[in-house]
Amino acid sequence: MDALQWGTAIGLMVLVVAATAVIAHYRRERRRANLLRNLHHNGIRSSHLR
Question: How far apart (Å, rounded) are the C-alpha atoms in residues 44 and 13?
Answer without folding.
Answer: 44
